[in-house]
Design goal:
single chain; about 270 residues; mainly alpha; 9 helices; about 85% helix; globular
């Protein structure tokens, strides 16, 4: 049986990861009337295209090659995310958002990018798992595994292992996943502001590759965790510190954009 507290934690986390990005978008729009809501959807669309489609195509080729080597896997996993997502941001700011000069639009874009990630990767996923958990408790793990396998013994064993893993995972882990999404949304918003400066302000082109490196640095702890080198408890403090640093630099970047655009208007 999957503990009820675990199912509740999954459901709460799933709902929050879906609702918070939408609420953030609505609140930010209400407080900033001139911000285009299209920036939110562009951010979400770029995440889907660059992270969930293009990056996954490369993963299908590269992961079998690098998965046995810790250094190669860590470097690849970190830089692949940085390159695809930051390139997506830069491309959006130079094309479909090229006429938007208000740095607040970059914040809305970041909410859309990070928010869509939270909704798809965690929100919808956990709500789906919660439904499966309820069905499993009503039927039993063996019956659920048999029903889901389509009569294939290997698939049945795989499903049973997955259900047992869900049953043995503490509720706190699912609540931590919500914290992770909040940190990730904040990081994506900070990166969006800095890449926006790179795309808009002369002489700041170097910020684009710098953001790729910064993004890669954030993903290193997660990659090391996947390789069972770093414990999960050590990952969150590291990414929280790096995100705080990103916010610090983004605030400075926002001010520079505002000042630079103000000088251009005066000229």
């Amino acid at each position: 049986m999957i503990p009820n507290i675990t199912i509740v934690a999954m459901t709460v986390c799933g709902v929050l990861c879906t609702a918070v990005p939408i609420a953030a978008m609505i609140i930010f729009k209400k407080k900033n009337k001139n911000v285009r809501i299209s920036s939110f959807f562009i951010g979400g669309g770029v995440f889907i295209l660059f992270a969930l489609v293009l990056e996954q195509v490369l993963h299908s080729v590269m992961l079998p090659i690098v998965s046995e080597n810790t250094v190669a896997f860590t470097l690849y996993a970190a830089f692949a995310a940085g390159i695809f997502e930051e390139t997506g941001r830069f491309a959006a700011f130079r094309t479909v958002m090229r006429k938007q000069v208000d740095p607040k639009d970059s914040i809305m874009y970041g909410i859309g990018h990070g928010g869509t990630e939270a909704i798809i990767i965690t929100g919808i996923s956990l709500l789906s798992v919660a439904v499966t958990a309820v069905m499993t408790n009503s039927m039993g793990i063996d019956a659920m595994a048999q029903l889901s396998s389509g009569g294939n013994p290997e698939t049945e064993q795989l499903v049973r292992s997955q259900l047992e893993s869900i049953a043995s995972t503490g509720a706190g882990i699912y609540l931590l996943s919500f914290l992770e999404r909040i940190i990730a949304m904040t990081f994506h918003t900070a990166m969006s502001v800095m890449v926006f400066e790179s795309a808009r302000v002369k002489g700041k082109g170097w910020l684009f590759p710098a953001c790729i490196v910064f993004h890669a640095a954030l993903d290193v702890p997660a990659a090391l965790y996947q390789m069972s080198i770093v414990p999960l408890i050590a990952v969150y403090p590291i990414i929280a510190i790096l995100t705080a640093a990103a916010v610090f630099f983004a605030v400075r970047s926002y001010r520079r954009i505002r000042d630079a655009l103000g000088e251009e208007s005066a000229a």
